[in-house]
Amino acid sequence: MTGFIYKISPRVAWARAAEAGRFDGAPVDIADGFIHFSTAAQLRGTAAKHFAGQADLVLAAIRVEALDPAALRWEPSRGGDLFPHLYAPLPMSAVAFVRDLPLGADGAHQFGELA
């Protein structure tokens, strides 16, 4: 599969991962045993459910083809929708871009154009 999947992360956690050259996951990822990602269509729901009102976040776009296909699984989650889960650390070499994920005046995150 080609294209992008996305990770929302607190800026400070992402900065530590960038220094290390890999993202091992947020506490929820580590507890679940895989790194949670979203597709472009799932992002707004993920932000609303798990990051409502949180500022100082970043959005990372990950190139699917740069990930180990044996470690990336599409599994049912919210509403039976298939979500991408990575059962390995995320190498920074797979990251296409990272940008701010600001809150709008309405309190919702502003995603802008996605790749």
From TrEMBL:
Name of a matching Pfam family: DUF952
SUPFAM superfamilies per the UniProt record, alphabetical: ADP-ribosylation
Domain of life: Bacteria
Protein name: Dihydroorotate dehydrogenase
Organism field: Ancylobacter defluvii
Lineage: Bacteria, Pseudomonadati, Pseudomonadota, Alphaproteobacteria, Hyphomicrobiales
